């Protein structure tokens, strides 16, 4: 069948690549250069498996029926599913997601006047959004299906999904779930059909729990640093309990990336008039952690701090909402000069900070190098590196 995926980011492109193994897939983009890259099997994002699949398709070793387009009519004509994977950034003033990009695609799909077309929203949305959209647009052929993907490993997570959740129980919803199952390499993937509002809640609660876990081990680390204890020894002992496990336990400068900061804030906003303490604490804990990191760095009295990478983790080229952003802004507020090493940037400045992408010069000019995650590059300058990465694995 023909499928349109609106948005060529890590959610949209990973889904498009997955489904293009057995279907005709058109990725609707707003940028012509990204559409052209996709048509030429060139990934516009860093993702190990997408790049691998595209390279194999180029060599004729793998069949992928995928192309990019900036023409929504051509992209949607005859499509059985329109998958919406456009960004929904959190608006702190309105305390809700900016869903304008999602609405734009919904309205374009409605203009096609195709009764056989089903709209599937993969973008993260507020709880209750689909029900409101159905009433607003007078349509029923729309549902939400949350994604649970990691940046840099999005296609892998689609090939080996932990679960498939669909916020509807219609024949179209069941067909969509079966389509994802048949394209995956994992067998016996659990599938859960729920109402749209429950599906929306599942997404926000899952990400907020992950943020809770990150915050817990960060606060454990803060305690250990203040009390002069060995953080790693405590974490190792705690995580030997099989009920806790040794995952998502590596301290950091705070949770960040595209999903966790905005999803936790959106869930907190959804708690209006609902008793709670924990959800607010999870949001606040991230600010508290970054404030502590800044104070800990300032104790070392560096004149120039070098920031090694703006990304949250290895293997990612995305630094939206990375915890390091707030850290470096606060350092500048303390009167400390900040320079940045970020090889994915060709500009000389970023957000007012100097970019120094000759590593030797960067290291020479830095009194202290701060790194959210360790990489091999830093081994030779380990004596001036400040990090809370204890396990060097994620």
Describe this protein's structure.
With 394 residues, the chain is of the alpha/beta class. It has 2 domains: 2-194, Rossmann fold (3-Layer(aba) Sandwich); 244-386, Rossmann fold (3-Layer(aba) Sandwich), CATH 3.40.50. 42% of the residues lie in helices and 14% in strands. The protein has 14 helices and 16 strands. Strands 3-2-1-4-7-8 form a 6-stranded parallel β-sheet, with helices on both faces. Strands 13-14-12-11-15-16 form a 6-stranded mixed β-sheet, with helices on both faces. Strands 5-6 form a two-stranded antiparallel ribbon. Strand 5 (90-91) and strand 6 (96-97) form a beta hairpin. Helix 9 crosses helix 10 (231-239). It is globular. The mean pLDDT is 94.
State the CATH class of the largest domain: Alpha Beta
Q: By CATH's scheme, which homologous superfamily of the largest domain applies?
A: NAD(P)-binding Rossmann-like Domain
What is the alpha-carbon Rg in Å? 22 Å
Number of helices: 14
Shape: globular
